[in-house]
């Protein structure tokens, strides 16, 4: 019964989304406030209905109602409760439902909290949101209905793909979608501004919190996905430049650019047209990502199985929204008033450089992701573009960007002084260079790249710290006064510093793992020892174990330090999920400080040995810790008083901008 | 500098970056891609020893030789032609006989492919044939 109610709620949401599209839009055209106001209750009711539909599907999963085709295909009665719940979105239909649920969540937030938005802007934003929701609801209802029934109902389900039976599924997709779909708000604001024909600094102020929130979620989502793939797949890699990973990385890069150009627009009312274009492009890349993942045009380690009609449908949605928004942009952008002027050496100039590098880097990732698809479609030739391609294109563009980051916050607006900025950063620069040299001579003389990367990571972290110190006047005023100034700094300053420092931490982790990790593949007999990264592993033997819905062979290893202090056991296993007969590798991971020892096991050999693949991964955890720090930076910025969602009115915003200029 | 000059400066530096990115991309596409072959393709255009290729096909039944230390030997076939592959690492979990597989590596001596990457299908909707057929009759099964 609840399933039918869920289905009904879904259809009702579609009808409501159409109302939300048409009525406020018409209202904004003819200037009728009462028609414009229809968008708000429609958006909020839509969220409630979708939440009910989602809850109905989740209930079916929890109750293992195999009369629902989706549940039967992706669940099993013996599955632990957590995975029954997360299994709701561990499949194509359920994850699309989560997609629109989050879309409508953001729409409802605008409806509920955007009180100070001008009514026409708000009406147009909600109308565009409604249009996106309508398209995807139609897609779900026509091609991916999660509420289809089976008659007669099977007794047992086919179980969830074991790879997905992990806590990662509880966190990664919701975070990722909060990011992906959160950019729809920036998109709707851009489209609404173009419809309105009016973009000003206040617009940037309203868009920035949404972009910031989406960006922070996407950062967390990507990092979580990376860590999940790292420990679950048993290959020891944290990033594969896989098309599906790129699909989430491209909106992140474009979103990062948007975040920075919106600052310029808000503070200096420059780069208006560019910011609007970036807002469109960022969500377009999210849609492209959805298309790549959901249509089945890609074979990837992450893609769910899917059928071609869905691909065509999503492609149509993609073409409609991207094409429509870009056409709107082409017609209206010229009408937008041009922005303010600035000197190339200034904070604006630095942010323009940031945008140029980020967007070209995005373009190379886009080419690397789509080129094989296009080539195959045109010539039938199949090629693969992998990590070497991205190392040769993305990395050379990203390194100068990283090197330039610390300059941005210490340059003045409008007209900056590069020499002055360099002087202010001299301590951070010297420390970074010294540590790079130390790293080169003490750790690894063979790799200049390792030294360069370590120096670069520290440069980012120390640069961020320097920025905080400069802004609180360390060295210029009394320590006590500096401390009180430090406490009085706006939260967005801390946000910037944290995000930049987090980027530095991630850089350190990535560089250290890619250049300094060691690995060994060998056959081990019980009792045999192997040394790696200064630690000794003794293979104790294999032991069978039975879990709730799997059986496994556990290999026990005893870990000892070089000074023969015992550090406990590492267990690595080969698991067999009985319902699907599908094997998985459960890597044994031991975190020591910030580094990790990673052990994967393979087949048994004829002479009773076991194939073991082990890695020593120095500072690997910094990759994800850095991402968490970046996410925290975004979150802290969000609580800056000046950025409170919808808080400032146009007049106040203008005043604030004026007072900032004066200070 | 006038507004026009400044805009020109921004646009030209943007073009500069794009040109750089394009140059890097063309260079990398020329150097860093590997072509995909099926075993039958190698009959008509044999690969030179040392060239990196990606080879796709099915793991031939009964061809897997494990247990020689860390080394595994198997054959990839498309029922027209068969290529022997040697791999010195841990095989992916879903690597099985008669399953689709993509291996990446270079040919060594004697036409044996020395693989450094083996990819097996990752997401597998395993279902007995008869179950799938009966579902199709009921019209609830969607072709994948």
Automatic annotation (TrEMBL), chain A:
Pfam family, one: Cytochrom_C_asm
Ranges of residues in domain Cytochrome c assembly protein: 89-295
Keyword terms of this UniProt record: Cell inner membrane, Cell membrane, Cytochrome c-type biogenesis, Lyase, Membrane, Transmembrane, Transmembrane helix
Main localization of the protein described in the UniProt heading: membrane
GO molecular function: lyase activity
Domain Cytochrome c-type biogenesis protein CcmF C-terminal: from-to ranges: 315-641
Domain of life (superkingdom): Bacteria
Transmembrane segments: 6-30, 42-62, 96-113, 125-142, 175-195, 207-229, 249-266, 273-292, 312-331, 352-374, 394-413, 425-443, 449-470, 491-516, 619-639
Topology within the bilayer: Multi-pass membrane protein
Keyword Repressor recorded: no
Keyword Cytoplasm part of the UniProt annotation: no
Compartment list: Cell inner membrane
Role of this protein: Required for the biogenesis of c-type cytochromes. Possible subunit of a heme lyase.
Family: Belongs to the CcmF/CycK/Ccl1/NrfE/CcsA family.
Protein name according to UniProt: Heme lyase CcmF/NrfE family subunit
Species this chain originates from: Chelativorans salis
From TrEMBL, chain B:
Annotated residues for binding of heme: 122, 126
Parts of the chain on the Cytoplasmic side: 1-7
Keywords: Cell membrane, Cytochrome c-type biogenesis, Heme, Iron, Membrane, Metal-binding, Signal-anchor, Transmembrane, Transmembrane helix
Annotated localization: Cell membrane; Membrane
Positions on the Extracellular side per record topology: 29-144
UniProt topology in membrane: Single-pass type II membrane protein
Keyword Heme part of the UniProt annotation: yes
InterPro entries, per the entry: CcmE (IPR004329), CcmE-like_sf (IPR036127), NA-bd_OB-fold (IPR012340)
Organism domain of life: Bacteria
Coiled coil regions in record: none
Family, similarity comment: Belongs to the CcmE/CycJ family.
Role noted for this protein: Heme chaperone required for the biogenesis of c-type cytochromes. Transiently binds heme delivered by CcmC and transfers the heme to apo-cytochromes in a process facilitated by CcmF and CcmH.
Entries under PANTHER family matching the protein: CYTOCHROME C-TYPE BIOGENESIS PROTEIN CCME HOMOLOG, MITOCHONDRIAL
NCBIfam families per UniProt: PRK13254.1-1 (NF009727), PRK13254.1-5 (NF009731)
Protein name, UniProt field: Cytochrome c-type biogenesis protein CcmE
């Amino acid at each position: 019964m609840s399933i039918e109610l869920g289905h009904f709620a879904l259809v009702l949401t579609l009808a409501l989304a159409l109302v939300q599209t048409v009525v406020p839009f018409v209202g904004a055209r003819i200037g009728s406030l009462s028609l414009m106001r229809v968008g708000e209750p429609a958006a909020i009711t839509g969220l409630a209905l979708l939440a009910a539909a989602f809850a109905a599907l989740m209930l079916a999963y929890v109750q293992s109602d195999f009369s629902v085709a989706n549940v039967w295909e992706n669940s099993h009665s013996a599955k632990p409760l957590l995975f029954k719940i997360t299994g709701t979105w561990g499949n194509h239909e359920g994850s699309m439902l989560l997609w629109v649920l989050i879309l409508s969540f953001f729409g409802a937030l605008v409806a509920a909290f955007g009180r100070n938005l001008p009514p026409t802007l708000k009406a147009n934003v909600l109308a565009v949101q409604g249009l996106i929701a309508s398209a995807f609801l139609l897609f779900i209802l026509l091609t991916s209905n999660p509420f289809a029934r089976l008659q007669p109902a099977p007794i047992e389900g086919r179980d969830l793909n074991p790879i997905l039976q992990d806590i990662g599924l509880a966190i990664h997709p919701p975070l990722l979608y909060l990011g992906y779909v959160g950019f729809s708000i920036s998109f709707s604001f851009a489209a609404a501004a173009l419809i309105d024909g009016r973009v000003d600094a206040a617009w940037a102020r309203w868009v920035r919190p949404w972009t910031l929130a989406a960006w922070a979620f996407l950062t967390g989502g990507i990092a979580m996905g990376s860590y999940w793939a790292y420990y679950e797949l048993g290959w020891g890699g944290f990033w594969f430049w896989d098309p599906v990973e790129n699909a989430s990385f491209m909106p992140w890069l474009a979103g990062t650019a948007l975040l920075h150009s919106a600052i310029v627009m808000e503070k200096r009312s420059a780069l208006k047209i560019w910011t609007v274009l970036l807002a469109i492009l960022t969500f377009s890349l999210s849609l492209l990502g959805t298309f790549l993942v959901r249509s089945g045009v890609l074979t990837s380690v992450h893609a769910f199985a899917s059928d071609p009609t869905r691909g065509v449908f999503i492609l149509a949605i993609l073409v409609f929204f991207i094409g429509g928004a870009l056409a709107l942009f082409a017609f209206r952008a010229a009408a937008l008033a041009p922005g303010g002027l600035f000197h190339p050496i200034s904070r604006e100039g630095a942010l323009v450089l940031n945008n140029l590098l980020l967007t070209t880097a995005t373009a190379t990732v886009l080419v690397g992701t789509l080129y094989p698809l296009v080539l195959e479609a045109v010539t039938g030739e199949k090629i693969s573009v992998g990590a070497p391609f991205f190392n040769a294109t993305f990395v050379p563009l990203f390194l100068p960007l990283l090197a330039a980051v610390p300059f941005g916050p210490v340059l003045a607006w409008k007209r900056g002084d590069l020499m002055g900025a360099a002087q202010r950063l001299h301590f951070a620069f010297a420390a970074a260079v010294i540590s790079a040299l130390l790293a080169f001579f003490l750790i690894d003389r063979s790799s200049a790249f390792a030294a360069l990367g370590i120096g670069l990571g520290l440069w980012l972290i120390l640069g961020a710290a320097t920025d905080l110190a400069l802004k609180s006047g360390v060295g210029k005023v009394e320590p006590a006064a500096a401390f009180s100034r430090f406490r009085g700094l706006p939260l967005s300053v801390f946000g910037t510093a944290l995000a930049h420092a987090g980027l530095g931490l991630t850089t350190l982790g990535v560089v250290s793992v890619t250049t300094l990790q060691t690995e060994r593949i060998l056959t081990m007999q019980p009792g045999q020892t192997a040394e790696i990264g200064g630690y000794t592993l003794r293979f104790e033997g294999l032991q069978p174990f039975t879990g709730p819905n799997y059986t496994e062979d556990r290999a026990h290893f005893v870990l000892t330090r070089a000074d023969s202090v015992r550090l406990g056991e590492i267990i690595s296993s080969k698991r067999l999920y009985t319902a699907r007969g599908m094997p998985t590798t459960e890597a044994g991971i031991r975190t020591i400080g910030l580094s990790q020892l990673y052990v994967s096991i393979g087949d048994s050999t004829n002479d009773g040995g076991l194939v073991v693949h082990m890695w020593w991964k120095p500072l690997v955890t910094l990759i994800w810790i850095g991402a968490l720090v970046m996410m925290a930076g975004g979150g802290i910025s969000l609580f800056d008083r000046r950025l409170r969602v919808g808080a400032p009115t146009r007049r106040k915003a203008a005043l604030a901008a004026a007072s900032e200029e004066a200070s | 500098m006038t507004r026009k000059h400044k805009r020109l400066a921004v646009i030209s530096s943007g073009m500069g970056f794009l040109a750089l990115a394009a140059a890097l991309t063309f260079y990398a596409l020329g150097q860093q891609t590997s072509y995909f072959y099926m075993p039958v393709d190698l009959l008509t255009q044999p690969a030179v020893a040392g060239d990196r290729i990606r080879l796709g096909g099915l793991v031939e039944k009964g061809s897997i030789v494990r247990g020689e230390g860390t080394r595994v030997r198997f054959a990839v076939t498309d029922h027209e032609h068969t290529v022997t592959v040697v791999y010195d690492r841990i095989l992916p979990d879903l690597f099985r006989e008669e399953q689709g597989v993509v291996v990446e590596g270079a040919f060594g001596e004697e036409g044996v492919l020395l693989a450094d990457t083996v990819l097996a299908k990752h997401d597998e909707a395993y279902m007995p044939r008869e179950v799938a057929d009966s579902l199709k009759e009921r019209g609830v099964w969607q072709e994948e």
